Amino acid sequence: MDWFQKIITISDSKRGFLLITNHIKDQLLEVSNFKIGMLHLFIKHTSASLTINENADPTVRQDLETHFNQSVPEDANYYKHTFEGSDDMPAHIKSTTIGNSLIIPITKGSLNLGTWQGIYLCEHRNHPHTRNIVATINGIKF
Amino acid sequence: MDWFQKIITISDSKRGFLLITNHIKDQLLEVSNFKIGMLHLFIKHTSASLTINENADPTVRQDLETHFNQSVPEDANYYKHTFEGSDDMPAHIKSTTIGNSLIIPITKGSLNLGTWQGIYLCEHRNHPHTRNIVATINGIKF
Amino acid sequence: MDWFQKIITISDSKRGFLLITNHIKDQLLEVSNFKIGMLHLFIKHTSASLTINENADPTVRQDLETHFNQSVPEDANYYKHTFEGSDDMPAHIKSTTIGNSLIIPITKGSLNLGTWQGIYLCEHRNHPHTRNIVATINGIKF
């Protein structure tokens, strides 16, 4: 049984839904040591989020961005939290709707994702940010 | 301390919110060996999701289906990802909104669900699918 | 390696998004014993939820309440589950949208939250309720 933890940094994340599966895998070569386990990814911010969705067609990511912009409007007349700009309160709402953490099972040394599943960073602010993700692995090694 | 992992298959899942608590429990008799632990359920698909909600009145499940059909429309004029049919892009959006995994605490050999809580498979495609769920248990045995 | 589990009770939770970070920390002094680990919080109800969002400006919490009231209307003409009142079916929908559990990494004896992150209880019913949260810690001690 073993634990492993590190911070993974995404520099200059741009607004939108960004496929980060390969970046996460490259930063977590330790996954290959685990026979069974779980990887927990936790983004330490309140205006970005993490999700899992289709890893193939980039229009899925564009449509997700458009959908959440439609369903969480900027400058709604009932917002009180407005002093950080039009994109700020929508970013908080999207973060709570989508969620700030993921758990992915580890099986025989690999992330046990479905064929079409990829890991997304969802950046909800206009200006690029540096985003920190705490990665925690827990499992039994080979 | 111990780990257990298996794939649970739901055959022919039909569109809608489906109560699968008993199916999950029947497939995971190993839960009864754990004094304290966590069960992680992870659906390996991007157009279905998992949630926990009321286990009694079936109209809760019907209303959830209707609500998400209202709030995530088919054939929105801004969708670009349309070649797999009208139900495809909404399925991806619902999957990201609802989420693809659950963690349920284990206490004294049982899932520590509230009285009214049941596990739902949310099938967002029109055609029945076979859905695979990775179940991972981690805890201390009696 | 060690496990710890207890029930944390929130008495008289009032409708809205309530910051409970300090209450959770005060009830979980055991976190300080863990070098690396995870805290799982699981609310045992289907009309309340848990999320992480900004811990500073209270208008973020007010705007979240207003947004979800706009996007999940009361008395929608398609609701069938109506016998427990106008706030009941919207509460179930919000619970599935926001989610009923959180996982927070533990690092060097503390919850590894970002500077601006706080833990929220989201109470979706009008009448105050007593809400039970199962807290499960798993990790390696110092």
Describe the protein's architecture and organization.
Three copies of one chain form a homotrimer. With 142 residues, chain A is α+β, with helices and mostly antiparallel strands. The first copy, chain A, has a single domain, classed as Jelly Rolls. In chain A, 23% of the residues lie in helices and 44% in strands. The first copy, chain A, is built from three helices and eight strands. In chain A, strands 1-8-3-5-6 form a five-stranded antiparallel β-sheet, with no helix packed on it. Chain A has a three-stranded antiparallel β-sheet with strand order 2-7-4, sandwiched between helices. In chain A, strand 5 and strand 6 (110-111) form a beta hairpin. The model of chain A has no long low-confidence stretch (mean pLDDT 97). The A-B interface holds A 1, 36-38, 51-54, 57, 59-60, 62-64, 66-67, 70-71, 97-99, 102-105, 107, 112-117, 120, 138-140 and B 1, 3-5, 40, 42, 44-46, 71-72, 76, 78-81, 89, 92-93, 95-97, 99-101, 103, 132, 134, 136, 138.
What's the CATH C level of chain A?
Mainly Beta
Provide the CATH superfamily of chain A: YjbQ-like
| Most strands sheet of chain A | 5 strands, antiparallel
The 3D shape of chain A can be described as elongated
Residue fraction in strands of chain A:
35-45%
The assembly state of the depicted protein chains is homotrimer
Number of helices of chain A: 3
| Total DSSP E strands of chain A | 8
Q: Which topology of chain A does CATH recognise?
A: Jelly Rolls
The CATH architecture classification of chain A is: Sandwich
pLDDT < 50 runs, ≥5 residues of chain A: none
Number of domains of chain A: 1
Which range best describes the helical content of chain A: under 10%, 10-25%, 25-40%, 40-55%, 55-70% or over 70%? 10-25%
Gyration radius from CA atoms of chain A, angstroms: 16 Å
The largest inter-chain interface, given as chain pair and residues per side, is: A-B, 36 and 30 residues
**If strands are numbered along the chain, what order do they take across the biggest sheet of chain A?**
1-8-3-5-6
Instruction: Give the SSE order of chain A as H and E letters.
Output: EEHEEHHEEEE
- Overall residue-averaged pLDDT value of chain A: 97
> What is the distance, rounded to the nearest whole angstrom, between the alpha carbons of the first and last residues of chain A?
10 Å
Given helix and strand content, the structural type of chain A is: alpha+beta
